[in-house]
Amino acid sequence: MAAEPVTRSPFDVARFAAERAARAVRLGAPLRYAPTTGSTNDDALAAAREGEPEGALFVSDEQRAGRGRRGAGWVAPPRAHLMFSLVLRPRVPPDRLSTLALATGLAVREACARYVTSPLRVKWPNDVELDGRKLAGILIESSGVGTARLAVVVGVGVNVARVPWPPELTERATSLEEAGARVEREALLAEVLAALERRVAVWEAQGLEASRAELAAADALRGEAVTVEGVSGIAAGIAPDGALLIATPEGVVRVVSGHVVRAGTRGATPAPTART
Amino acid sequence: MALPTQELEGLLQLLREHGATEFEYEDEGYRLRIGFAGAPVTVAAASPAPAPAAAAATASPEPEEAANVVWIASPFVGTFYRAPSPDAAPFVEVGVNVRKGQVLCIVEAMKLMNEIESEHAGTLLEVLVENGQAVEYGQRLFKLAKS
C-alpha cells in the first residue's frame, strides 16, 4: 500500500466501474461524477425531478454546500471522504418511505463491517457509529410524494480518511482510517451499493420487518438516557414502523422526528460527517 | 353499556336546562364525556360509541367555504418546514399563485425530507401550520383557492 492514503486521490471512475462490476451491482448507473459541487443531494434531486432513472449516482470529492439535517453545514477536506447521492424510485406507499433511512444505515454498517472490527451501530434515525463515534451520516430527500413521479435521493457520507477534527469533535467523530482501515472510496462505494441494493429490495417488499432483530442488535441508543424534542427518557428500541421508542415515567412515547440528544452530551450540535 | 338514544337525549336536555358546562359518566367499558363550551360541543366516548354522541360532535359545522377552496394535507406524521433550510426564504407566501406540482413545504420524518407539492394550481390563502411544528397524518397544511 502506498504511503500516501489512497483516499486523497480524486475519485477514480474507472476503478469504481471495475469494483461495481466485480460485485454485479445494478445501482450506480448512470454515474454523475463531479470533482466539486454544491451538494450531491441537490444535484440528484434536481436531476430526479427531470426524470433521472433509478440507480443514478452522484459522486463528488468536495462539496461547497453539503447539508446535514435542516441545513446544518459542515466542512470536509477535499477527497478525504466518500460522499454520494443515489436516485431511487421505490414503489411503496408514502407512509412507508421514512424507514428507508434505517435500512440505509444498516447497509452502510454492513459495508463498513468488511473493513473494521470495532462495533458498528446505527444511531436512530440516520447515523452510523463506530466505537460510539459518528462514522457516517445519511440524508434522504424525496420529491413528488403521492405521485407517479416519486423520486427518493439517498445521500450518504462516510468518513474515510484520518482528518484533523476540531477539538470539540475529536471524541465524537471518527473515520475508517482512524479505526485502522485504509479503504479506497471506490471499493467502499461499490460495497455500500451492493448492500443497499439487496436491502432496498427487501425493504420495498416488506419494510423493516425482516431487519427487526438486526436493527435491535445494531441500535446505538438502546438503554441510553436521551432527550428528543422535549421528551426525555430511556431509549427502548425501534418500532417496526421506524419510530424511536422512549420509556418515560408516563409510559412509552413514540418519536418520529427530531434530533436525539444523549444525556451528558454537550450541546445539541451533531458531529459532522461527510454528508451529502 | 351505552345509553339508549332516548335517555341520552333526555340527559342532554337536562344538562342544557341546568346550564351545565361538563358532564362525565363512567361505567364498565363505557365512558361518556359531554362538554358545553358554547360551540363546539365535545363528546368523547369509549367503544361502543353511541350514535347520538357522534351526532352531537358535529353540532358546530365548519363555516361554508367557497367551492374552489382546497386544502393540501400532510401525507405523513412528521415535522413541517416552510423553507429548504433555516436561513432560506419560505417556499411560498400567502397571496402568491402556485403551480400544480410546485413545492410548498417539507415534511420531515426520520430524517427523510419530503417535498410536498401542490395538487392544484391556485392562490395560497393560508398557511395553517407554524414552521417547525409537528404535524399529523392528513393534517391540513395549506389552504388554496383553485384557479
Mean pLDDT of chain B: 76
CATH architecture of chain A: 2-Layer Sandwich
Overall strand count of chain A: 12
| Rg of chain B (C-alpha, Å) | 21 Å
What is the count of structural domains of chain A?
1
- Molecular shape of chain A: globular
> How far apart are the termini of chain B?
51 Å
Instruction: Assign the structural class of chain A, choosing from mainly alpha, mainly beta, alpha/beta, alpha+beta, or little secondary structure.
Output: alpha+beta
**Largest interface chains and counts:** A-B, 32 and 26 residues
Query: CATH superfamily assignment of chain A?
Result: Bira Bifunctional Protein, Domain 2
How would you spell out the order of helices and strands of chain A?
HEHEEHEEEEHHEEEEE
Q: SSE order of chain B, as H and E?
A: HEEEHEEEEEEEE
What would the average pLDDT of chain A be, to the nearest integer? 89
**Envelope shape of chain B:** elongated
Class computed from helices, strands and strand pairing of chain B: mainly beta
Query: What composes the largest sheet of chain A?
Result: 7 strands, mixed
| Rg result of chain A | 18 Å
- Unreliable stretches covering 5 or more consecutive residues of chain B: 38-61
